[in-house]
């Protein structure tokens, strides 16, 4: 039977190895080089390929070690401890941070093939997700009372999460939206500005109308909107800005023409 830890690390290994293959072909890999570890053809950017493939091998190794030791299975623990059963533990609550971490990993992978600022953004997202996820895991095991655990986590993290998270969210959304506006046409910028504003306003109305709504649902909607805008900002930033007409130069040229005509008439 495959344990939870095995499924996570095995899936992570496949994702990292797949990212290595994609980066290999995207950076000039030829034939079946990225798939055959460079045996038949090039692997593209060697540093990116080796780092991603190496991390994939490490994750694969951890997954096999975990399944070999049964991932702290209660029956296995009881067997090795020489007892009839192990005391049950408090179940771990759901957390959105794995999704955020996966998004950060994708951004980092894209950044390896695209540009350094995208890499930095992905690493920052991964670090924040890892920290928040760690605090969730700590709080879930602090006591045997889920309500007390949630209150303890909020007491420790709320003074940091609310101001820092608000600043990062607003700054990230503003920067991503600006990249979108500078990439699309003038009418397209008006459309996307309206769409983003309507979405944010709609989420505010939904929260005001139903204050007792499940916070996980609201957090999921906010996260989905933020990820969509950030992803659009990354794609448009890589694509570049549209061409702008330089009206000032035309005006100066026309002014010079008029002055020359005036001098000729004199």
Biggest sheet statistics: none
Secondary structure tally: strands: 0
Beta fraction: under 5%
* Arithmetic mean pLDDT: 76
Outline the secondary-structure elements.
Blueprint: H1 4-26, H2 46-68, H3 74-81, H4 97-113, H5 116-140, H6 146-183, H7 186-209, H8 215-239, H9 247-265
Helix pairs in contact: 1-2, 1-4, 4-5, 5-6, 6-7, 6-8, 7-8
Model description:
76% of the residues lie in helices and 0% in strands. With 266 residues, the chain is mostly helical. The chain has nine helices and no strands. The chain starts with a helix and ends with a helix. The protein is flat and about 80 Å long. Residues 251-266 have low confidence and may be disordered. Helix 6 runs antiparallel to helix 7 (186-209). The protein has a domain at 1-76. The protein has helices at 4-26, 46-68, 74-81, 97-113, 116-140, 146-183, 186-209, 215-239, 247-265.
Write a brief caption for the model.
The chain has 9 helices and no strands.
Descriptors:
about 270 residues, mainly alpha, 9 helices, about 75% helix
């Amino acid at each position: 039977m495959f344990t939870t830890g095995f499924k996570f690390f095995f899936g992570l290994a496949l994702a990292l190895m797949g990212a290595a293959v994609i980066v290999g072909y995207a950076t000039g890999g030829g034939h079946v080089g990225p798939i055959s570890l460079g045996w038949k053809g090039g692997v593209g950017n060697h540093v990116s390929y080796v780092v991603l493939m190496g991390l994939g091998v490490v994750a694969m190794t951890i997954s096999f070690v975990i399944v070999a030791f049964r991932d702290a299975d209660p029956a296995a623990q009881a067997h090795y401890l020489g007892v009839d059963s192990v005391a049950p533990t408090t179940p771990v609550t759901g957390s959105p941070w794995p999704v955020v971490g996966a998004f950060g990993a994708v951004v980092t992978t894209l950044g390896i093939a695209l540009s350094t600022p995208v890499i930095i953004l992905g690493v920052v997202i991964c670090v924040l997700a890892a920290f928040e996820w760690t605090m969730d895991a700590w709080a879930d095991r602090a006591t045997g009372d889920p309500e007390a655990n949630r209150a303890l986590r909020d007491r420790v993290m709320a003074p940091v999460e609310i101001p820092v998270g608000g600043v990062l969210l607003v700054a990230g959304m503003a920067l991503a939206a600006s990249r979108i506006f500078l990439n699309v046409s003038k009418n397209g910028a008006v459309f996307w500005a309206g769409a983003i504003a309507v979405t944010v306003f709609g989420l505010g109305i939904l929260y005001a109308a139903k204050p007792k709504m499940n916070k996980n649902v609201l957090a999921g909607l906010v996260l989905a909107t933020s990820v969509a805008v950030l992803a659009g900002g990354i794609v448009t930033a890589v694509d570049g800005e549209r061409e702008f007409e330089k009206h000032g130069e035309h005006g100066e040229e026309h002014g010079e023409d008029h002055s020359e005509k005036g001098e000729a008439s004199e």
